[in-house]
Amino acid sequence: xxxxxxxxxxxxxxxxxxxxxxxxxxxxxxxxxxxxxxxxxxxxxxxxxxxxxxxxxxxxxxxxxxxxxxxxxxxxxxxxxxxxxxxxxxxxxxxxxxxxxxxxxxxxxxxxxxxxxxxxxxxxxxxxxxxxxxxxxxxxxxxxxxxxxxxxxxxxxxxxxxxxxxxxxxxxxxxxxxxxxxxxxxxxxxxxxxxxxxxxxxxxxxxxxxxxxxxxxxxxxxxxxxxxxxxxxxxxxxxxxxxxxxxxxxxxxxxxxxxxxxxxxxxxxxxxxxxxxxxxxxxxxxxxxxxxxxxxxxxxxxxxxxxxxxxxxxxxxxxxxxxxxxxxxxxxxxxxxx
Length: 338
Description:
Elements: H1 4-9, H2 30-39, H3 42-47, H4 49-63, E1 67-69, H5 76-81, E2 84-88, E3 92-96, H6 115-127, E4 133-139, H7 141-150, H8 158-166, H9 168-192, E5 196-201, H10 209-230, E6 236-240, H11 247-253, E7 258-260, H12 267-273, E8 280-284, H13 286-291, H14 295-306, E9 312-316, H15 326-337
Parallel strand pairs: 1-4, 4-5, 5-6, 6-7, 7-8, 8-9
Antiparallel strand pairs: 2-3
């Protein structure tokens, strides 16, 4: 029997929504911090399949979430495509050489870097109950491209946006290459045991409408179509953070089965404007969960009421903040589950 999350992503409504949290496996958990201290750097942990399995399962064991999201990173794809990847303390991820200075063809691909991730999925699926959905994921091409072009994250994705205007052919080649890799990578995750996948487009909000159509909607539609051709029943969750009023077009045109809603969007508006019957995921502000004030329960009720007439997966509007107290997560779950 499929679990509550998988049923919801298939379009079934339930009295209580399933719940999982983006970045639920990570630094807010003391058990994660202890394992990280033992194992070393973040990337070492990602590529250590038994350790990555343990991290993936930690929030399931503590909170009983309905979905287990693979512990990995969206930058595994550029790493496998041939860029050097490192995570520097206090600075975040760094990729080199940057595609501002280097042609894509100069990179030496190493697809073996995907194998430990697939093994993590296999190990997790073997340990999980049938009622817990194993979620795979990848970054969407635009978001991954912003890192590959600039070599790091930025506030406004200036380098990638400028390249897309200055040389759209070059940007199209980068986007196409990432999409090709992402299709294969997600297929590998599904073959290893992932039952649903999420496409993270964390920087989609930086694009003008016409650019959003080309660099967000089109490549995500291509990925989704390829996945569905291979795995017709596979739920694909699209999460275009910052899409705003472009969210309904994304939901209609990409072919995703469910859409993630960030915290900046009014859930009442989303419930009204998104395609009828489409499962929706979201959208509590992670900083409200961090604060844990009386407003937490109030906002949970607003979200639950707004999405009461459609399949709804309760989640945050983005990743959980590393400073979030465990007690606040318990409080959230008590509100959602009643």
